[in-house]
Each structure stands twice: as C-alpha cells, then as structure tokens.
Amino acid sequence: MGQETDFNGDGVRDIAVADPEAAVSGLGEAGVVHIVYGGGKGVTSISQDTPDIPGAAEKGDRYGHTLATYDHNKDGCTDLVVGIPYEDIEDKADAGLVQILYGAPGGLTTGPAVLEFLQGKGEGNIGSTAAEAGDWFGHAVAAGATSSGEPYLVIGVPGEDVGAVVDSGMAHYLRGSTNAGFTQNTAGVSGDAEENDRFGYAVAASPNHIGVGSPGEAIEDRTFSGGLQFLEHALNSGGIPTPLAGVEQDSPGINGAAETGDQLGTALAAVPYRPSGASSANETLFAVGVPGEDLATGEDAGRVVTLRVTGSGDVTQTADINQSYAAIDDVGEDGDYFGQHLTAVNTAPGSTGTAQTVLLAVGAPGEDTETADARDAGAVQIFPMVGEPGSGDVWLEKGRLGLPGQPGPQEYLGVGLTADRQRLHLGVPYGPGSERGVYGVLWTSLLSGLPDTVSTVRPGQDGVPAGGRAFGAVVR
C-alpha cells in the first residue's frame, strides 16, 4: 500500500469503504461500496443496482469483498477494482467477477464505462478459462504500477479446479496487452496443483514483485500448512510473470516448521524497499500472515513472517513476529489469529528504508482484551519492517490514540485495514452503532504514542448513508 487514492483527481485523498454484508433492495449480503470524496465533496454509494454498474444486486454476492486501487487508464484519476467472488455467473454459483470503476473529475461512474472481467468472456487467458461454480474469481486483487510506470492487476482465483484437481487455485495477471494466467502446474511455478491448495487466496504486489499465497498447501501429510510463490513483473518465455521462488515453513532460512492448519499465506502485504547503499527501491518487503500458527501459549495464536525479495530474485527472511516474543507487547493466546489481516506502507518510497518509514500493521481479530467481556474484541499491532520488530511495536485497540469507545465482544478489530503515507485506516465494522466506521490514525501519532487528530467516516454522518451491517470491513 501507500499510493494515494484520488478518484476525482482533485489532489485530495478519497476513501472507498465496503460493506459486503449490506442488504440492497432487501437482498441480504448483496454488498455496497461507499466512496467518500475528500474535501467535503460528497459521498457516492455503489452497488450492482446503481445505474451504469453492470449486473444486478443479488443475495450473497458480497459486492466489495475485495478492493484495490490504481490508475488503469493513466488519466490522473484513481480507478477502483472491485472483487465480487461470490457472484453467480448464470447457473454457476460463486464463480466470481471483477469490475474496474474508472475515476473521472466528476467522480467514479461519471467517466468511462465499467470494465468487467469474468472467466469465459473476452480475450486472453481470462476469456479462455471457463467460469465454474466455486471458483471465487476476485477473492483477492492487487493493483499498481510497475517500476516503469505500467499499470498492472493481479486477480486470485483460489477455488479454480486445475483439471480434476479441486480448489487448487489460479492467478491471473493483466498488464498492457498481457492477459496471462498461471497455476502451480505452470512451468517454473513451485509445487504442484493439489486439492485445496487455494493458490491465489491472497495476492500482493509492489512495483517490482508479486506474491501469491496458497494457505491450503499441504506439506507432505500436513494439510493447510500453506505456501507462497514469488514472481517478478518481467514476463518469461511462457508469457507469465517470471517465477522466482516458492516458500513454505520448511524452506531453508525460514523459522518454524510446517504444521497442519498453520495456513501460511492467508494474508499478504508488500512494499517497495530501498536498502542502505542502493540507488533505487528495486527490492520488496513482503509480510506474510500465518494466523493458524500454534504457539506454546495458545492454539491458533498466529504469527507473521517478513521476507525480503531482492532485485536479483533472492528471498530471505527478515523477521519472525508473534506476540509471545519477550520484546513484543501482549502474549499469543488461543484464537487470536494474529496475521489474519495485514497492511504495510513505505511512507518515503524513494528514500532508504528505515524503521520510521517502512511500517506494518497486523490485525489480530480474535484478540481478547483486558476489558470485561471483550472476547474477540480484536486489536492491531504496528511494527517496523526494518530492524528489530520489537524495538518499536505499538498496540492499538479501541480507546487508544484517538480511537473512540472501549473494546467490546465480537468486534473483531483488525479485519479492515489499509494505509497511505499519512495514516493507518482502520475499519470498525462490528462495534456498537455509534462507533462503527473507519478511523484514520496518523503515523506520526502511532510512532510517538501521542494522540492526534483522527479522521472519521461513519454511517449516518457527513452524507454517508445510515445503516448497513459491516461498514468498514474492507477499506481502500
């Protein structure tokens, strides 16, 4: 993360807030995305019942289940990618769909027509791959621009069957005229397509590299241990991004061991990185969520591994982060699911990366706080991605550093996270009605530990429609 989102090109930060559980015309979990324009320029709410948006709102579509932003047509206005993995395509339930909503000076939906991607339609690999029930096309999306400035889009399809191998998964890559797809049976990609690998469940990318998670990957007889594939944007002779390395917890140099249910690769985040002495940010730091990791202090406590991918394609571990390390606040407990959601930012991407500029936020939605009856209240921890993670970690829960209210049960703070160069934006989708919303905490406040102004987007305020069910579950 880290690119500014500006859908109308006026130079003021805008924000997209999804409520994938919202009802539309009485249809439960049809899903809505709210666009809040900066500078008080209004709010637009978008669903599949909105004029000029293809399709129709349907029960269980979960419009906005995933979001990404980039400038696809390079007109200076940010475009919004909307993943709808539970969209039914004809009689194929949960086949999935992705839309690009183009930015324009008048805002989203006022410019070029919406561009849709669905398997079996159009050109390239997406068009030649059939839509099937349970594909979950668009379950994960990542978008941005390469180091040469070319826009790209990565789409995860974790439910794709490869031949007769069920739910082995796939990823699609779109850049310029390239419309390519790859699985674990593609030449150069590590591993083999196996049942329940869920390759493409999570995707992340920087201007230099791409990461694809397969949390269902079995390592020998250890099912759902998880794995990763790293690639670079340059295409190989097969016409796909060049595979660099596959990683799992039994890989040399990776801490821990592959265990049943770890689910390495459930969440991914990536930032461009310029190491000391380098002339440019041609490397990438990846954060990898392992939310099912068991610690001595609790089952499914979770952990995060950070990995450095160099310009030459070497992959090394830089940190192993969990709440049971002495230098890190709190203790890993049963069901914390630390690492279930991640976001990362480089606040100065052209400069040498430091502990103050390359930052990671880790969601632990199952965290039980000390507040009475606050089971699964959730929490977020912030770590430097350069240097020792415990040297500057920050604990964030409701009631701290300007977040309103106090932790409550089943609020799952940490599920909605995104970042830009000024703020960490946190969704509170399941709190009391008066506290639900999206809150932007300044990085300067997080690093100093001193409260400062917190930006606020809430249902029923400043033009945002009231109601909904999970406002802020996804934020960009």
UniProtKB/TrEMBL annotation:
Transmembrane segments: none annotated. The keyword GTP-binding does not apply. The lineage of its organism: Bacteria, Bacillati, Actinomycetota, Actinomycetes, Kitasatosporales. This is Uncharacterized protein. It comes from Streptomyces calvus. Signal peptide: none annotated. SMART domains: Int_alpha. Keywords: Glycoprotein, Repeat, Signal.
